[in-house]
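Posting this for the archive.
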Amino acid sequence: MRWLILLLLPTAAQADSVVATRQITAGALVTARDVALVDMPIPDALGALADAIGQTARVTVYAGRALRPSDLGPAMIVKRNQNVALLYTTGTLAIHAEGRALGTGTEGDEIRVLNTGSKTTITGRIMADGTIEVRGAPCAGC
């Protein structure tokens, strides 16, 4: 008795790719109007609209160009010159102050902030709610 072994050769898989429908400038939030899905495999391109919508463009992407993971990043929580809350905690002590962001970033990023009360520049980490957590010595004049 002979066995027949069938080899299934892979066929060209159809893949969707995300492309820009209009120019997306660096720093802009990507919306559903900015992107479309095309039925064409493009190397390194995102494959789902959900991977792009709500992200921030790290570079300018021109209309008709594919969006790649390196082109996008998480949405910015804090923008330069935005008023922010500063928080320093140690043990049971919590000091709150007002500041002005000297940089732009998302959750977990470290940015420089001007303490508006003391006019001191400090560095802190952005928390999910946009508060800047200050570590080390408490900020002067908080």
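The chain has a mean pLDDT of 87. Residues 17-73 form a domain with the Type Iii Antifreeze Protein Isoform Hplc 12 fold (CATH 3.90.1210.10).
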